[in-house]
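Pipeline run #58 for the internal structure catalog. This entry was flagged by the ingest filter as a single-chain record with no existing model, so it goes straight to prediction. Upstream metadata was stripped on purpose; only the residue string is passed forward. Reviewer on rotation: M.T. Logging verbosity set to normal.
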Amino acid sequence: MTKVETSKEIDALAALWAARLDRGELTELDQHLLDSWLEGDTRRLGSLARARALLIPVSSTASAGRPPANDADGARQEESVASIVPSLMSRRRMLQAGTITALAAGFGGLALLPHGTSSYTTAQGEVRLLPLSDGSVVTLNTDSRIRVSFDDATRTVYLDEGEVLFDVAQNPRRPFLVKAGMAKVQALGTAFSVRRTGETPVEIMVREGTVEVAAPQGRRQSMKVGANMKAVADASGDIFTQAMSNDEMERMLAWREGKIGFSETSLHDAAMEFNRYNKIKIEVGNQTIAAYTVTGMFSATDPRGFAHAAALSLDLKVQEKPGQITFASK
């Protein structure tokens, strides 16, 4: 019986193909292999489109201080894609064969993270995708900062600020840990996001599989959180969980595609969310306006478009000055 790829496995290979495409024209053989891969599952085309969209901010920031890809890697890249993808192995089989690292190593558009400790950040409005040396993939949302520390015993990522989606490669002998403030999350072969912004509680959303959330300083017993669940770990040591629908989960992860989704969200909270992505800040005029609610999907980097759409639906007016947009009553 043929094993059906999970979304996580498809996304991981799509990320690698996106990076290969970002480097330039494919060889005839690689193009054939890519076409064959896309034809094998209708989900793959959409995953590849999302992965390529995520690469745009990464490529555009190369001239701002990030080193360009090493041309010497090009030949290795051509060989690695051609030799690995024809068999169309699942990501799990690649990991078992030890070839996912070789495949990712050739992609100059993405960073393959080595053993040791390294720091990675995103600028305001940027989304960045990073394959890790163990076969896992992390996607950093706007204004995020992580430190990755891998050794032979453990794989640890420190989330200092922001929001990150983790697609974790299974390896029971090397636990995958995420530390965000005083909260600790251990992945059990899964896809999940962690958000840590300012002084707010740490939020964990599980897309696939299971994670174990440890309370700050061990003051509470750790808790296992399964798919379509959200956990909130506050500084007091309490962990709260709630179920999430597939629609809610996808809306909360819409930032991967450069969007922000709201559902009966207060105008105050919506403005604060937009302010994470943009230098132009949105302000609400008073508490009454702040309590109005908005629903919809919006471009994360278009605060003006959001403000005018919200004002139209809520019968408000928009006042603009350099660097600021304010909602006011008519």
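catalog note: The domain at 258-329 is CATH 3.55.50.30 (Phage tail protein beta-alpha-beta fold).
catalog note: The CA atoms of residues 94 and 100 lie 5 Å apart.
status: ready for reviewer M.T.
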